[in-house]
Amino acid sequence: MKCFAGKKRIKRKLASLFITGFLAVNIIEPFSYVQASAQESIWVDSGVLAESNWNQYVGNDFLVAFDESAGEVAVADIISQLDLVENEFLYDECYYLKASNQTKMVSSINTLLQSGLAASIQPNYQYGTTDEVENETQDDIQDETEDEIMDTAYTILPEQWGLLNTGENAYLDRYIGEYIPSIAGVDINVIPFWNAVKEKESKEVIVAVIDSGVDINHTGLQSKLWINSDEVAGDGIDNDKNGYIDDYYGYNTAASTSDVADSNGHGTHVSGIIAANGSSGVWGVAGASNIKLMQVKVFADSKSGEETYASSFAILRGIMYAEQNGAKVCNLSLGMTTYDGLLANYIKSSSMLFVCAAGNSGVDIASKPIYPAYLEYDNIISVANLRCDGTLNGSSNYGISGVDIAAPGTRIYSTIPNNTYDYKVGTSMAAPFVTGVAALLYSYEDGLSNTAVRKKILSGAVKIDALSGLVETGGRLDVYNAYLVDASAPSITTKTTVYKSKAKASIKVTAADIGTAGVKAVLWKKGAKAAADFKKGTSGTVIAETSSVAITASGTYTIYAVDTNGNETIKKVKVTIPTPTKVKLSKTKITIKKGKTYQLKPVVAPTGVYVKYTYTSSNKKAATVSSTGKITAKGKGTATLTIKTQNGKKVTCKVTVQ
């Protein structure tokens, strides 16, 4: 294939660059004294951090995950014993810790190792960027028209082939020395989508751009930047009490400030691809929709010409900030070649959708994984770099295991700082096209989960022979196709009615298909079950789409529905049938004569609940008791009568027979 020939030739030329338009890597080997993953290595020598690996911890800081069984008191105690200048709780049992120098850092790590409380310890990894700007020259372009292209209410510049490719964007690929033709129709097919939804309301969707910041004054991004309306900009006060001072446009987790200015240009370019407002004729994928860009700056500022890095700590804090403040989609045009366990675990547990750049080493990602793109979770989409001729750029990573889809990523025209526009290339540019599509689907459709959005995007990919065997879908991004895909699972509504005097309840179930497929099956099981437990609708008790489930015992019940397209959903219903909490008698000591009777009248709390009593006597020669609580005195002596409810609550009565 032509694109593979380019891939082989480009590989040597990229050796020193490593990644173009992609947040690259400072390769640092991982450390963990408990092997939390097959991708992590153990770097311990006789129970302490091996000296040969001290330099892996470049900032005298590290991240630790304590064992779940350690307990808060023990964790607080061991941290207090460490010689640290900074410690911050992250999530679950995970902490960021920093010492003032290497000696104190190593001592702290060894103390944690010997305590037996740490489940894993890892460096504060560094992610870096070396993106390339393609400056347009006359020699680079063939047959490019200066005319703007009109389509309905939108004016699309010819430079924006990713949105609308008319076949007029051929260019010189300087790495392989060939002109790359532009094939009409090789774009994300956004115009039909924009037209289809123009009469629909666009719900606000927040997209977190986890990157190098943004030019907040760029005219092409005005009205598209997320504003924290509960915060007063620049007053030095955390007005909304979310733990971040002055986070008006987002937050800078690299410096722990509200300054999200972009000194690199990467984040501003990514932001424009997602949601440029049409100023100067440059549009983002979001078009005129109500998509807002939350800026989460994770890359430290650097001097001119120096490479900039983002740490695991900054990225993890940034993702946590985004989720805390309402983001639905995270764009991660960044990566490195080392598995980052704590970051991976948080991403996996998040309700957000993560769109990740696959990397620009020009290799099968399985042979040289780039993280987080290579994390094959159901809330991650990994994106390759598509050229305007429908083939992969030679620098793009690929792989049917680990790369999901291709999107425009070569010669992408977008916003850059200082209120200007320029081209960039790389999977960093491809990922935000997918991010923009995900945001549009959330904005114009109801009830979509992150997995449903992912399914719509991947199922809607346009298959191309040139991509077969290179990406999992074998195709390129198509927003209109994704919009038409039915990935919506049926809805389940329930209403629980408890009949406390009868010790039973009922769950009224109504299942309806949100999409067009129709409900295939509705089932239920007792217990907190996962969708997989119903085995695609073949395991469980079958009920009608509208029906009632009779319940006779308290507990959790799981309702399951699947449509004819295989979209599944579950709803867990907790049912509590009141039972007696206490039983008592007006008299607990009785004296009666032989041959006489006495009627016990126990009462329970709460009142009105169903109760069934059992009565027993410790000495039937003295007194017996019937199933209705009637005592009969049989002979002189004493007996202890026990009254017990169906759930084990009991009271006793001492009977003396004279």
TrEMBL record:
A Pfam family this chain is assigned to: Big_2
Domain of life: Bacteria
Keywords: Hydrolase, Protease, Serine protease
Family: Belongs to the peptidase S8 family.
Protein name as annotated: Serine protease, subtilisin family
SMART domains hit by this protein: BID_2
Stored InterPro entries: Big_2, Invasin/intimin_cell_adhesion, Peptidase_S8/S53_dom, Peptidase_S8/S53_dom_sf, Peptidase_S8_Asp-AS, Peptidase_S8_His-AS, Peptidase_S8_Ser-AS, Peptidase_S8_subtilisin-like
PROSITE patterns assigned: SUBTILASE (PS51892), SUBTILASE_ASP (PS00136), SUBTILASE_HIS (PS00137), SUBTILASE_SER (PS00138)
UniProt cross-references to SUPFAM superfamilies, sorted A to Z: Invasin/intimin cell-adhesion fragments, Subtilisin-like
Molecular function GO terms recorded: serine-type endopeptidase activity
Bilayer-spanning residue ranges: none
Domain BIG2: residue ranges: 579-655
Annotated GO biological process: proteolysis
Positions annotated as active site in the UniProt record: 211, 266, 428
